[in-house]
Design brief:
Layout lengths: L6 E4 L3 E5 L5 E6 L2 E4 L4 E4 L3 H18 L6 E4 L4 E5 L2 E2 L2 E8 L2 H7 L6 E11 L8 E2 L1 H6 L5 H23 L3 E15 L2 E7 L7 E5 L9 H4 L5 H12 L19
Antiparallel strand pairs: 1-2, 2-3, 3-7, 4-5, 6-7, 8-12, 9-10, 9-12, 10-11, 12-13, 12-14
Helix pairs in contact: 1-6
Length: 256
């Protein structure tokens, strides 16, 4: 990629660059790890490479299912090409098993299976700590229209159904995950599409047999072995060679 390309935005885990064609953006996955609204920070070599590849794998399959996403293709080990969207300022959280902030907030023992999957919304604002909100807040403040909320809910349910089955097939529980959506403009038409990323950074993934954590909680809770856990997720998905046991900082990826 041209090193003189224009930087559009830099977040905690990714950098966005102007794409090679109008209406496209290049997403660069960094090795930075953050937790607790960036109060805890570290650089973990190899994390960005794995997140890029895992997110590509999942987005490609969601595209195959007919779910609209911003993903176009992976460009290299750390970057992917996506369509430009206007991000809707919501974090959509799907919870299948009580964990993290929900377990603490409601006094539920972590690991308790929920009666049904629960979808929560947070207002995407780092300065406010991404507060939990209701649909009434979303429509009252114009963050999304009722139709957009309906579209988001319908897509989120489909994404959860697909990903729960996909991970269960490889011995992993999909405890919860966070996704974001954006508005894609096509002439006079606007459609709601899945954006951002889906990776162990944005999902809670537990081994079905041992309940071992295979996600960013390994960093949040000082458990260590974050890259090794991400590698194991990639290996089970078929992204890494089954016989690859090299250094975790430099994983060997299977070319798609």
């Amino acid at each position: 990629m041209n090193q003189r390309r224009r930087r559009i935005y830099e977040g905690k885990a990714k950098i966005l660059y102007e794409g090679p064609e109008p209406g496209t953006v290049v997403v660069h996955f960094k090795d930075d790890a953050t937790a607790y609204n960036a109060e805890k920070k570290a650089v973990i070599e190899g994390k960005g490479v794995l997140n890029n590849r895992i997110s590509e794998f999942i987005f490609e399959r969601l595209n195959d299912l007919g779910l609209p996403t911003h993903f176009v293709k992976r460009l290299n080990m750390r970057e992917q090409l996506v369509r430009e969207v206007e991000i809707i300022p919501l974090e959509v959280i799907v919870r299948n098993i009580a964990a993290g902030s929900m377990a603490k907030r409601l006094g539920i023992e972590e690991g308790t299976a929920l009666p049904r999957s629960i979808i929560e919304f947070c207002y995407k604002n780092d300065e406010l700590g991404d507060p939990l909100i209701a649909e009434e807040h979303i429509t009252a403040f114009g963050w999304a229209s009722p139709q957009e909320i309906d579209d988001i809910m319908a897509m989120t349910i489909r994404i959860n159904d697909f990903m729960s089955g996909m991970f269960a097939a490889i011995g992993i529980k999909l405890v919860d995950f966070k996704i974001e959506f954006g508005r894609q403009y096509e002439g006079d038409l606007v459609r709601t599409v899945l954006a951002d990323e889906i990776s162990p950074d944005s999902c809670r993934l537990w081994d079905m047999k041992t309940n071992e954590k295979m996600d960013k909680d390994r960093f949040r809770r000082d458990l260590g072995g974050l890259v090794e856990a991400y590698q194991e997720v990639a290996r089970r998905l078929g992204i890494l060679n089954e016989n690859d046991h090299g250094k975790p900082a430099k994983p060997t990826l299977v070319k798609s």
